[in-house]
Amino acid sequence: MELAQVRYFLALCRTLNFSRAAEACNVTQPAFSRAIQRLEEELGGALIFRERTLTRLTALGLEMRPHFETMVEAAEAAHALAAARRKTAPRSLRIGLGPGIPATPITSAVAEILRVLPGTEIHFTEAPSGTLVDTMLADGLDCALLPDDAPLPERLNRWPLFRDNAALICPETHPLARHNQCRLVDLEGETLLLGHECGNFGDRLTQMAEAPLQTQRMRASASQMQELVRAGLGLALLSNRIVIAPPLATRDFVDPVLDRQVLLTAVAGRPVNQAAAGFMRLCRAQAFD
């Protein structure tokens, strides 16, 4: 399978017209049609249904389109990064992380930027969603990972990246550490530490609980919350994507399910440097677990 074939197919998806798609790809229609036919042969099925003036995607074509779009985005990101590597101007990548959102899921994209563009300065900023939005609009950040319930202005582009779920954090010696999963009923008699900077999982649980929970509010980051749990001040609900080190244990919180969609956001229409553009393309092309 050649990337040119994939590009031809995507052009045909946009136009649903062989002549216009061939013209857009700057090839003759016979060569264009042969490329589509070879692609269908390699995939073992028809991608396009064509009958007189009617052209539409088959079920296989509809299924393959998002995968092909991801392939082209990844290829374009690689080309852009390779071109940027030849430039010597200093580069930086400024990423905002919303409340309780870890950098763990995007480390592979950051690593690829540093591999292709060595010397790029990476800046992480952890702050409330509103602060990160204001900073982006003021050109203080290239992009930010924000929860989908954050109030976002129309000026921001947004792309869903992944979902994260609440996990219960407790000392390894705590009785709940012997559980495979934890539920609301397991928190009876326990102190739950709450913090707006940790993703609001705990606050959402207190609103859903029929009986009041024993809570303690803390103005603390996710890493600081782990220190408080380690000190025996209570338990915490954090993103299951945060890496937890001993002597703490993490257990999936399954009843009720507490999850959220995490978005990649950036100011629409604003030019960014090659490192930032490549990073955002890599994130959008990445398949998150």
From TrEMBL:
<dbReference type="Pfam" id="PF03466">
    <property type="entry name" value="LysR_substrate"/>
</dbReference>
<protein>
    <submittedName>
        <fullName>Transcriptional regulator LysR</fullName>
    </submittedName>
</protein>
<dbReference type="GO" id="GO:0003700">
    <property type="term" value="F:DNA-binding transcription factor activity"/>
</dbReference>
<keyword id="KW-0805">Transcription regulation</keyword>
<dbReference type="GO" id="GO:0003677">
    <property type="term" value="F:DNA binding"/>
</dbReference>
<dbReference type="GO" id="GO:0032993">
    <property type="term" value="C:protein-DNA complex"/>
</dbReference>
<keyword id="KW-0238">DNA-binding</keyword>
<dbReference type="InterPro" id="IPR005119">
    <property type="entry name" value="LysR_subst-bd"/>
</dbReference>
<keyword id="KW-0804">Transcription</keyword>
<dbReference type="InterPro" id="IPR036388">
    <property type="entry name" value="WH-like_DNA-bd_sf"/>
</dbReference>
<feature type="domain" description="HTH lysR-type">
    <location>
        <begin position="1"/>
        <end position="58"/>
    </location>
</feature>
<comment type="similarity">
    <text>Belongs to the LysR transcriptional regulatory family.</text>
</comment>
<dbReference type="InterPro" id="IPR000847">
    <property type="entry name" value="LysR_HTH_N"/>
</dbReference>
<dbReference type="Pfam" id="PF00126">
    <property type="entry name" value="HTH_1"/>
</dbReference>
<dbReference type="InterPro" id="IPR036390">
    <property type="entry name" value="WH_DNA-bd_sf"/>
</dbReference>
